[in-house]
Structures are given as C-alpha cells and as structure tokens.
Amino acid sequence: MFEAKSINAEHKDLIHDVAYDYYGQRMATCSSDQSVKVWDQDEQKNWILSANWKAHSGSVWKVTWAHPEFGQVLATCSFDRTAAIWEEIIGETPPQGERGLKTWIRRTNLVDSRTSVTDVKFGPKSLGLQLATCSTDGVIRIYEAPDVMNLSQWTLQHEIQCKQQCSCLTWSHSFSRLHPPMIAVGSDDNNPANGSKVAIYEYSGIRWTKTESLASIGINEPVHDIAFAPNLGRSYHLLAIATKDVRIVTLGSPPEGSSQRFDVQLTAQQEDNLSGTVWRVSWNILGTILASSGDDGCVRLWKANYMNSWKCIAVLRGDGTQAKSDTSTSSMPTMGQIAAPNQSSTTRYYKLGTITNPNQVPKY
Amino acid sequence: MSGVRLEVLWSPVHPDKFVTWGTDINLFEVKPIKDAPQSSFKISETTVAHRLASNSSSPYVKCVDIYPHHEADVLLALGQINGKVVLTTFGPTVFDCLGLAGKELVPRHGRQCNTVAWNPSESNLIAAGLEKHRTDHSVLLWDLQRCPHSNGHSSHHAPSSMEPTRPSAELGLSETAHSLAWLRGQPRCLMVGLNNKHLKLFDFRDPGRAVSSTPTKAVYGLAVDPQADHRLASFVENQIYVWDTRNFEKPVLFLSQNKPVSKVSWCPTRNNLLGTLQRDSTCIGLYDIQPTMVGNDEVEPSFLERAVLPGVTGVVGGVQASAAGAITSFSWHPTHENRLININLSGNLTDYTVFERITLNWSPSNHIVWTHGWRTLKTVCDKDPIYSTIDNEAMLIKKRALSGYGLSTNLEENGDLAESKDLKRLWRWLQLSATLVEEGLVPNNNTGHPGVRSVLKKPEGSQPTGSETSNAHGPWAEINACHISARVYRSEEREHALQLCGWSLDRDQFLGQLESAGYYSRAAAIAVFNLRLPQAVNILRKGAEHPRTTSPANLNIVAVALSGFSDDKTSMWRQQCIASKQYLTDPYLRVMFAFLTAESESYEEVLEENEVTVEDRVAFACCFLSDVKLSEYLRNLTAKLTDEGDLGGILLTGTTLECIPLLQRFLDRTGDIQSISFIAARAFPPHLLKEDSVQEWISNYRNLLDSWKLWTQRAHFDIALSARTESDKPPQQVFVSCNFCAKSVSAFMQGRGRGLFARVPNKSKVCKITSCPNCRKPLPRCSICLLNMGSASGAYSVKAGSTTNRTIEPGSNSDKLAEFANWFTWCQSCRHGGHASHIMHWFSEHLECPVTACACRCMSLDFAAKVISVPVV
C-alpha cells in the first residue's frame, strides 16, 4: 500500500496556500495563524523548516515565489488588507554546520486595497518584476518594481475594476511575443445573477482591458481557484477553474474573420459532484495533468487522452485516520462514475496514510 | 411541528457515545467497522453504531443535555413539556447510589421546558429555560450539590436552596426563555435569549441584573463558541446572527438563509467554524468566519461559506433532497477534529468528518503537496512508485533528456531513445532523407530533409520534357500466362519520392531487408506492388516457414491464394478474394488483395488503408496514380495528417513551413515539447528556426530544462541549436579589464594563444602574466596569498609537483582542476577576490570576505550557487 510522506507543518491554524519556488526546491506555506513558513529540501529530499515569521495581522491567504533571477523573493497577501514583498537576507546566521533560521525581511507593504487581498501572483519574468493582486472589493492591481535590485520600491501601474469581488487570479505562462500578457481572475460572489465569475484581461501595451468573460461557458457559481496551464508551446491556452466542479477551458485562436478575441471551448467538466465544492487546482509542469482538491477530502488527478477528453486518473485520499483502518479499496462506493465526457472511468484509488517518521519532522 | 423531531447529541465526555431522542431516548456506541458487534448498523465507511440502551419512560421530552463530568455512565437531564427537569440514566448506574438518577426538578408552575443545560465546569449546576408564566421565573438554576457525588463539588452553598427541589437561583420573572448557553471561561455566566426581544448575559454571582444585553429577535438556538467565549451565534427564522459580547450592541455578522434555521453550533475543535442547519435540508452549512478586531468598523467581517452533504455520498448530484433525507439535527464531536454526527427524518444516522479545505500545489520537480487537516502536509514525489502511474510523461521527458535524446549525431539513434513508434519512424526518416540528400540521390530543395511533395513538384516554368511521367504497362511477371498489365507511372521525380519513402532503388535488396527483419507481409505486398507476383509468393512461403511467424498457416494459405491469381474479371478467384479479404487481420495482406482485385485503376482501398504506413501508401500512389490524381491524393493526405498531428506527415511536407502546423498539432495533442524542439534543432533549416512558433517551442523547452536544473542538457541543446546557425556566434560574456588602462586583459591574452594566461608556464617557456600585458601595471593581488593574480596558486604547485612524474594526458580531470585553481574569481558585490582555489578554501570555513574589514557575506549571497545541477547518469 502506498503512503504519502507527511510533514508536520506546525501551523497553528488552517494552511491556506503552499507555494513552490521555480526549481521546486523550496516551499512556502501560509496560514490563518498569520505566519509564513519556508521549507528547504535537503539532500535526502526531506523538507526542513528554514524560516518562520509572523507576516501579517490577519489570515495570510496566498504566498508566491518570484523567479530566482530576482533573488529569493516571496509575496504574500492577507485579510489585513495588505500584500507584502519579502526577501531573504543573509543575516546573523551562525557559521556553517549549525542550523540557523534564515531571515526574511519585509521589503514593502502594498496597502492600496481597502479590503482583504485575496490573491497575489508574480507576472512572467519576461515582463520584468511585476506583481498582480486582487481583493474582495473587486480591484486587480498591477505593481511593478522598476529597479529589480531595489525591492522596496513598487509602483502601482494599473488598477482594474472588476464588477465583483475577486477570489483568485492567474497569469498566463506564455513566452511568446505573439501573446500579450494575460490575467484570468475568478470571483467567489454568491449571486448567480451577477453573471460570469471568470474574466480575462489582456495588456495592450497601454492598459489592461477585459477581452473575455467566458459568458458562453456560463460559470455562475463561486470560483475558488483558477490556473493557467504551463503553455509549453501549445497553440492555445488551457485554463482550469475550481468552482462547484472542475472545469477546463481552452482559449484558442478564433476562426478567421471572427470578432471574438478567443475561440472559447469548455474542454472538460467534471460530470459527477462527488468531490463537492472544488477548492484548488494545480497543473503539472507539462500542463498535461491537473490536480484538484475537493470537499470530500480527496485530491483528484485529471488527464486528457488523445481524444482530448479528460478523465480522472487517480484519487488520492488525504485522510490519515481512514487509511489506518482496514477498509479495502472496493468498499468505497462514493467514487463511482468519474467525469470525462464519453469516457468510462478507470479510476484507481490510493490510500494515503499518516506516517510519523521522525526524519520528516523538523526539530527546532 | 409535525411528528416528533429526532435529535442527536454526542456525549461531551464519552468519545464513542451519543444519544438520540424523539419519542424515546437511545444510547449508542460507535465502533470501528472491523469489530462491529451484531445488530449494529453502519453510520460511515469506517464506523458502526450499536444501540446500548433505550429509555422510553419519559414520553414528553422536549430537550436533553448530558452530564458533562467524566463518569463511566451517561446521566441525562431531560427537559419535559410540563416543565420538569428529570435526571435519568440507562439502566442501573453509579448515579443511582448518588440519588441522582430519577431526581425530578419541578418548577412551581408547570409549563413547557424549552431548554436545559448543564454547567460545563461546575457540573452540579443545571439551568433550565421555560415558557412564560405570569408569576414565575423562566430561567431556573438547580444545584445538585446537596446530592453527594463521588468527587464532591461541595464548596458552593447557595443560601436560597434549602432543598434540592428548589431552584438555587431564578431569573426572568414573567418572561420566556427560548434558549440558554453557559460560558466556558466564566463558569457562573449564562447567556439567555428572552421574550423574542433580548439576549442577556447573567452572572449568577449577581443574578439581579444582566451583565450585558442586546435587543434582538434572534433569541433561538444560542451557541457559545467553545474556543472563544465572547463569540456566540443565535438565530431567528431564516437569519443567523453572530455576536461578540465585547461589542454586544450589534451583531458581528448576519447570515441570511433560504429556509428557517433549526440549529447552529460551533465546532469545538476548530477556530471560527460555525455549523448551521436549515429546516428540510440535506446539507449542513459551514461558515468559516474571519475574526475581526473589536470596534474596527472599517473591516467588513468576512466568511467562507460551505455546504456539506453528509449521508448522500454516492448519490450522483447529491441534491435529491427527499423529505425523508432531510437532516433534523447534528452534533459536533467534542474532541475529534471536525467530526459530526447527524440524524435525518427517517432516523438514519451518519457519522461524518468535515474535511478541511485542501490546498495543493504541484512543483516543477514533480512533487505534489497538499494539506491534510491544518497541521499536516502530505507529499508525493517522483521517487514514489505511485508517481509513475500519475505522470509518466514528465518522467519520460526527463529520462530522455538525461540519456541524451536528440543529441546523437546519427539521427536514427535518437529514435532508439524514444519509446513511441511514431517518433522512431520519424527519426529514421530524418536520417534517411539526410543520407539521400548527401549522396545526391534526391534534390535538396533548400531544406535538408525534402518532403515527397516538394520533390514531386516540377521546376517552375520548365515544361515537362525529359522528366515527363512515362506510363509503362508493366507486364505481370509470368503467372498463369496472363497478359494483363497495370498502368505504372515512372519519372525521375517519382523515383526520388519512392526513395524518400524508403523504397530504395535496388528492390531486391530492399525486399530482402524487410524479410530479414521479419516483415513478411509487408515485403510481399511491396513485391506485388512492384508487380513481382512470384517473388511475393516466395516471400510468403519463407515467412510461413520461419519459426517466429505467429500464424504460419495463415501466410501459407495466403501464398496459395496469391499464386492462383487470375485477372479474369469474372473468375471465381477474384470473387472469393473480394469476399474474404476483409477477414484478413494483416493490413498489408488486405491491401495486397485489394490491389490485385482493383477495378479500373481505382485504388482507394489501398490508399485509404490507415493501418498501412504513410510511406508505403505514398510510394504506392507514386507508382500507380496519374499526375493529377497523385497531387490531389497527396494534398488531401497532407491535410489529413496535419489535422491529426501525425508525424508520418513529415514525409510529405519535409522540413518546410508546411510541417510547422503539423508539429504544432502533434504538440497540442501530446505535449511532447522535447521531441518537437529537437526535431527543430536537428533538422530545420536556419530560416525555419526563426519562425515565431518554433522559437516558442525552443524557449519553452529550454525553460523546462532550466527548472529541472538540467543545465548541462540545456547547454547541449543550445549547442545543437547553434550548430544549425553557424553565423551568429554568441558574444563573449565577461571581460577582465586592467585597473589602470581599462584594456581587457583576457582579450589581449587571446592573441598569444589560449590558456597561456591561466596556466602555469611550462618549463620551457616561462611567461609570467602577473601584470597587464598592455600597460605593464601589476594585476590585483589575491586576497589570500597576497600574490599578484596570474601567479600560481599554491594548491596547483603541489598538485603539479605530485603529478609531474605521472603522465597526465591533457584534458584529464586533474589537469582541468589545476587550471581552475588559478582562475580569477571575485565576489560580485564586494569585488574582492583571488585565486579560485584559495577563495573556495576560505569560504569552506568562513562566511565573511577574506579582505580585512569587509563584512560582505560573499558566498551566501548567491542562492543559485546552492542549486545544484542534476548529474548526468
């Protein structure tokens, strides 16, 4: 039986976000306990806590890493209505050989929002050092550090008014000069009458304009997470949306002569509602597999076959207490027919147990 | 209220017991499913409930609370319709001897008891809330301390209660108490909802007046947050209010519901989580409330709303809210994280654990992490066996990158590293076309890998004269003395195309190769297409005799059938062949007979047989289709293959502009950026590499390698790429310039021969470069050994001395290391430096710069230095 490795995060409240750096060698977590922790991977692939500090005076919603070419830089956003930029500095660390916590200092505090800042993401590095935030009052703000060597100066470049409170945003990862910078933003507004909960904004070189609202897809339920797939040279954009189910939208180039900006296709929609509300979505590095987490405490992995129909390829249970008991895999009728149009399911189940391996638990 | 409402309550002190009540009261025990006793029933995937006892002696129960002190047995306080509070147990218990069981606490005037609550810390106190009576109080506090119990809470003596049947305190004269709740932190404080008008907080140390109060209609279902005494929730009809007693004037939060609310309850194991239940609903609403500062009006309180559907897992859609499925009550488990039990109208119980919202992420290095609960992170990485079943594509690409895929000089060998047949074929074809062009057998057409369509294209303007397609009637090789013939087209261009398809000039040799590779049916079909019927029969015979052929009988029979070939349009042979060829599983055998039985040169069956490789179909078309038909066929086939992203289509397009959409389609379909990038890097002519989409493939692939830390592989890729475009040589990146004359030291050195500068002079030619070659001023000193740069570092001398006796071939590892030891190196931030070996040695033991009074932490400044490239395996 397979068991996932376990790390005791030692946060005092719910963890809201986990972020990997560019190489996947460092990890940052943030929590309702107002703190941020940074974890480094050692040679044995164990995660060691390397820093822990109180970052905000409210729940910290999201944390994200900048590209390493700008240094070791984190951005966080919080219920306390601010977003912050953090940089690791080489402080009074003890000599090598001894373990010392690294020091992160706040380079700047972005206080423009009047309400809780719900998401923060660095732009692609080709745009320089840019940062997008969104908040519950429905404003997207684009900041830029004009001098990448000076992280304490950020200028608010753009303020985009969305009609609804924003919950999440994502930059497109395209490297192409053909594609303008693009941001998709989701709203967790409860009222379906307010229209589509996803909007796509593009930068024309002068201003950001809304170019698509996915009205044809009809996402009127609250959106909790949104993620562009790594582009990887594809001719279209893939956008994963976490709402009451998992949806994957393709944004292709429109047919000749069309006035539309994109050819929007709903590529996949989870057909069952077994996972309940979907909270988070995340792509693998190739943009070929999507991971989603739902209310039922399971992580589901979705993959497209050659016919471009997406199906669930694995369900990972995150519940240690269940895995300890000896229920056989067949006694889980809760996962029946899993999604993917025209595709019978070949779902596999894996039990993930808690292992309390002392090696994985950092002592400090 | 129609019927009897079923309620459920976890015992506050027994982690495995709960009670339900409606008409009668039942005590249940929860057990893991594996040691389920008989007569138990399942309440979740892992637990069963087992009824321990039942009590039907109190038919008029309105409300129930469980004795909150640790005892082996369960003692209940039942609030009855007549206002009595009865203490009862299930069967004989320790409480019997204490005189508690069966005790009745009777108010002066009988009326309905709305609510009853044990004090959670001073467990001798029970508060009861009753309906209004003109001359009586509605909140009665009973003190059981008179009754001796085992652990003797006896410090408190209420002066007014001489008898246990008299309440020790009374509140709310001629008022109605709808609900009440004790505060945990202040054991004498009771929150009461009164008269549809007020929430009042009383302190029984001074019961005369309310400590604080607020006017509100929401007086029902008072619930105090066990995690934070100052936070409470109450409801009225379909409105839920959340209060903070420190700022009691107005609610912190107002939650409007669709239907009347029947219960609210704070989760005891988690901060700020409120469970709510609406009437006739199958779901439990959860509100994750963000605490706000008291008195801070600016901040809008915020909450996250969720709904969980316990008990309907497995029902697709989940919202089939039949009346019987409606949940009537739920109760949080007092200690188990986020666990609750609920009961529905038909009496079904469900044990349910609310999962925390899981956040997750997927790292570039193939780790998946997600949160479990709020203390634990779970990770799966590519070392785990499970990962290969999830994401084998990323693993495959990484593995291929490490094994040097795409870099082999012989293009065909790259195919050996790829698993997919299509890729193998493509690389083989790239090698073939490159060889053909090299040998001059096929015109180049500016691409290096010309496609069939471009070689077939006649030069513009030149009227076909010499290279005109000649159509010869190929004689059927002497079979049955038939004199029929098929129309065969030949021309120089067609011959080129055939070669690109792999049909080499020497057909006998080609067929021999196929035979020895075991492709008997293909060889036979190609022999037939070349009008060599006897040879085809022979090939099949040989195939049948070969021990490894899977169905020798089959081939034998086909050979027999083939040898009976007759061109008579009405012959039995022909009809039989037409009828039975569809039963042949081998596509080559099928097309062979399709060709032999084809009528009036319509070869659709051969040309559209998708299981036959594109090469063979195109080659066939080049033999048997007229110019017009051939170009039409190739055009359609190209469009089709481009649309499918079939790599076989490269044969038609060659490495021209036309192949870009095809490769793009392949990429869209498979996500195999690696193969595409390498095909571009290895086979594309320079002008194609400048195409936007090609550039994008390449930059994406390079970024992928970078984030996997496969920098060596990325550098190899870059080298392969720049080999295609020799003209643009990358400029030098770094110069070392003299402090005095600002001339580049290294550039100057280059004229004197490479490597001289850094190398220690050989014994013959002593050439010390410790000064600027231009102005003769000395170079800076090494901050460790204080010698001018350009001198040998000590480390090298030792090494050189020890190795002089041995013969080291130049370029060997030790040689290189020695060279490196003498290099200039300096900190990018403080600009101090010295010999590389000295500096390395220094920083292995120190953090700060070796220069006096420089506090720069040179070595730790660069994080990237710690990120190590993945070693080549």
Give the mean pLDDT of chain B: 76
Mean pLDDT of chain A: 79
Distance between the termini of chain A: 32 Å
Helix content of chain B: 25-40%
Helical content of chain A stands at under 10%
| pLDDT < 50 runs, ≥5 residues of chain A | 94-99, 320-364
Strand content of chain A: 35-45%
> What is Rg of chain B?
45 Å
Strand content of chain B: 15-25%
Low-confidence stretches of chain B: 147-164, 313-323, 460-468, 750-767, 795-818
Which structural class is indicated by helix and strand composition of chain B? alpha+beta
The number of distinct helices of chain A, counting runs of at least 4 residues, comes to 1
Structural class of chain A: mainly beta
Task: Output the strand order for the largest sheet of chain A.
Answer: 22-23-24-25-26
Order of helices and strands of chain A: EEEEEEEEEEEEEEEEEEEEEEEEEHE
Tell me the quaternary state: heterodimer
Helical segment count of chain B: 27
Biggest interface, chains and residue tallies: A-B, 102 and 91 residues
Q: How many β-strands of chain A, per DSSP?
A: 26
Protein name (chain A): Nucleoporin SEH1
WD repeats (chain A): 8-40, 271-303
Organism (chain A): Frankliniella occidentalis (Western flower thrips)
InterPro entries (chain A): Sec13/Seh1_fam (IPR037363), WD40/YVTN_repeat-like_dom_sf (IPR015943), WD40_PAC1 (IPR020472), WD40_repeat_dom_sf (IPR036322), WD40_rpt (IPR001680)
